[in-house]
Description:
Blueprint: E1 7-17, E2 50-51, H1 53-71, H2 98-108, H3 116-122, H4 125-130, E3 139-141, E4 144-146, E5 153-158, H5 159-165, E6 176-182, E7 185-192, H6 196-210, E8 227-239, H7 249-252, H8 255-261, E9 277-279, E10 282-286, H9 291-294, H10 296-308, H11 313-319
Antiparallel strand pairs: 1-7, 1-8, 2-4, 3-7, 4-7, 5-6, 8-10, 9-10
Helix pairs in contact: 1-6, 6-10
Amino acid sequence: MLKRLVNNAVIKLTITPVDPLLIKSSQATVSGVNMSFVRTRHRGGLGEPFIPGSSLKGVLRSYGEKICRTLRTQPVPVCLPYVEVGREKDVEKGQASCGLRFEKYKKDRKLNTLPTNEIYRHSCPACRLFGSHDYIGRLATSDAYLSTGSSAVFEVRDGVAIDRLTGGAAGSAKYDLEVLVRGTFSTTLEIQNFERWQLGMVALILRDMEQELIRIGSGGSRGLGRIKAAITEFQLGYYGRPVRSFSGVTALATQDECQLYGFHPERPTDIPLPSPDQQGLRHVYDIKETWKDLLTPAVDDLVGYIETVRWPASIVSYTGGRNA
Ligand SMILES: [Zn+2]
């Protein structure tokens, strides 16, 4: 992350289940079912159901990875976050985790840390946006709580019955699932110091979330987890000075910074932004109504970036690992 704030994007959205939703709690249940929905801690009773920001980030990440894998098949442009270098199966070759590669590199050379710009420069597109072991990433997700005026409705389902319907798990012991069938949750995504292609990726994910194409939580193969998202706010912020057109960090950073971090060049665009609203040092552009059109150049940047990104070659030469 650059040591100064250049830009950010703040997106508020609501999430409503289309199919029953199960986000498993790791806590012992007090509601008497075997698998219950995650809730806030509450002394002596049931807390509020919520969707943890980390679950949400995981869903966004894996969908973002799918987009990258669709845009380029060879070499695969993103890593598998849990696969250690040297332990890849054949089908995973060249896709070892960025975070684990950096860990091994530090251990082999007895280093405590690596410069953030080097981690960023050699990380795959997914890790650049969503982070890896030691690097928090550019995108932050907050926990999603019930929207004002919305209440949650749960149903208890027979887990075995659901399995029987799809032909799986015949003969397994009976267990109950507590699924959420109604309720609208609100959350905020923030992307700090974004490269324009990163907003392109976020835009594609959000569009598909609006179209009910994304599932969250457990039981996707059993017909659970489809959600519908609605964008309630979408703001771009630029620090220090207003901008004339939709710019990412590449257009706003110095040439030295661009090289140090390996920012991807932005294709010129003349799509103007609406007039800004100044909030302290931040010039805020409200793009709630226009984000799909406005972010088109960012999607073009994403396509160009994925086609040309030097990952995994760049991380292999940096860490001097295998698969060179
Ligand atoms: Zn990675």
